[in-house]
Amino acid sequence: MGRSFYHFLMTYRDPEKRDDKTNFANAAYRDHSFPKQATNYQMLSNYLELNAPYLNGMALFDELYEEYLLDEEKHR
Questions:
Q1: 21-42 burial, b if ≥16 CB within 10 A, otherwise e?
Q2: Are 52 and 9 in contact (CB under 8 A)?
Q3: How many domains, the chain?
Q4: Where is each YozE SAM-like domain found (predicted)?
Q5: Which residue ranges of the chain lie beneath pLDDT 70?
Q6: What's the distance, CA 53 to chain centroid?
Q7: How far is CA 40 from CA 3, 19, 30, 44, 49, in A?
Q8: What domain range is 62 assigned to?
Q9: Tell me, what's the pLDDT at 1?
Q10: According to the model, what pLDDT value does residue 61 have?
Q11: Which CATH number characterizes residue 30's domain?
Q12: Tell me, what's the pLDDT at 2?
């Protein structure tokens, strides 16, 4: 894989929008402990479940991770 999930997620950052994906990206940006180089679903999922009170449910992460995989596949 080329870029990390974090770098993919940062494409959703926006100071104006308030949708769930943008809120997640903005919160992850402020989370200095976020595993910024991780690409592995299990590692990211474990981190978010234990350390991310800003994420209201794992369904959003699952959806974004699927988008991430599709995006990575497209850029191969």
A1: bebbbbebeebeebbeeebeee
A2: no
A3: 1
A4: 4-69
A5: 1
A6: 14
A7: 12, 25, 21, 6, 14
A8: 5-74
A9: 59
A10: 98
A11: 1.10.150.260
A12: 86
